[in-house]
Amino acid sequence: MKLELKYSLAILGIFAIFFVAFFIISWDLFSNNLRTEILDSFLYSLKIERYSIKDISKITEDYFIEEFTKENSGYYYVIDEKGYAILHTDPTKVGIHIVKDAKLDDLWKYMRENDAGTYEYIFEGEKRYVSFVKITSEGKTYYLAHAITYGELFADLIKTRYYILNIFIIFMVIFFIISYYLGKWLTLAIKKQVKSIEEFSANVASFIAENSAAAAEMESVTKNTQKNINELDELIQNFASAIEEGRSELNSILNNVKSFFLNIQDMTQMTMKIADFINNLSDLNYKIKDISETVSILSINSSIETSKEEIDREGISRIADMINELAYDAKKTSRESEKVLKNIESSITSSVLLSEKTLKELSNVENSLDSIDQVVESFVNNIDTLSSFSNSTKTLIKGVLDGIKQTFEALEEIKNNIDELVNMAKKIE
């Protein structure tokens, strides 16, 4: 079914429901009021006709038929107080008993209880109305009645309803045509909107596809980054372990160098003490040399004096020779000791200079090791910072992956909604 036809039927249905409801309510009020007026007029006309009868007991059947027979106005009859029809516009009905023959017990009861009125009943399978008035003549009671079918009594009301229904049908046809073109006009606008929705949906679908591809690529890059971060973190941990081991070794080396430095200082001090001792030995050697020279002089003097005095020259000469020999040996020993002491002093001086140079170099080494220790300490701090940065990066990467996953889910939900929107648009078409 075309969309414009659907809209026209929908508009027509809504209007028809509204109009039918309005018609039913209005018609019910109108028909009830009109039915009441017709029934009142039906009874009132009978009352007027009653006054045209002066003495009902003297009315002949022919007169009654001629006077009360009217086209499309039902029939008239007169019932006596016993319930028998004594007059009737249909001669075949004269003599019929209202209860025994017509079986209208309720009507007869109603007529006896009221002087005038209108009553609705079913007779011979047809709905009828009867208006009656009680007439008293020569001490007897009669009932003048006018009976008519529903169709005859409310013929104008039925015609009015028929005309209204025809007008309603014609109006509905006209309104259907109008609603069809209105629906067609609405359909054009809706189709235009649907086309815009489809174009928008296609653009959104393309955008979603591009973003999905970008998100997939981003996810791949993020996973590779996460893998590299994990490898970097492992390298950082290994490097940190190596740095920590190197730091321990460096501290051990620094302690050994400092210990060696202290030992060198102690050795230098001992060397300086030895140098002082050697200086004392040199002084002692000089004194020995002076003594040997003095002894030599004394030996020479004793030799001279021996030649002058008459003493045991041989013994004294022997003693002088021995003293001289001793002085010579002492002098020789002193010279050799001096030479040795000078060599020792030179060696000690060289050793002291070397020790001082070594101390200086060791001081430089110590400073270098201290610098290395500071560098290592800086490395350790940087490693800690880098490790913290690596952990933060891993957390960030995990958050990015979660965000990408949520983006995928959001894009998928948008895609499903767009597909549903497109399907709805196709259904509208």
UniProtKB/TrEMBL annotation:
The chain crosses the membrane at residues 7-27, 162-182. Keywords: Membrane, Transducer, Transmembrane, Transmembrane helix. The keyword Disulfide bond does not apply. GO terms for cellular component: membrane. PROSITE patterns: CHEMOTAXIS_TRANSDUC_2. One of its GO terms (biological process) is signal transduction. Residues 190-422 form the Methyl-accepting transducer domain. This is Methyl-accepting transducer domain-containing protein. The lineage of its organism: Bacteria, Thermotogati, Thermotogota, Thermotogae, Petrotogales.
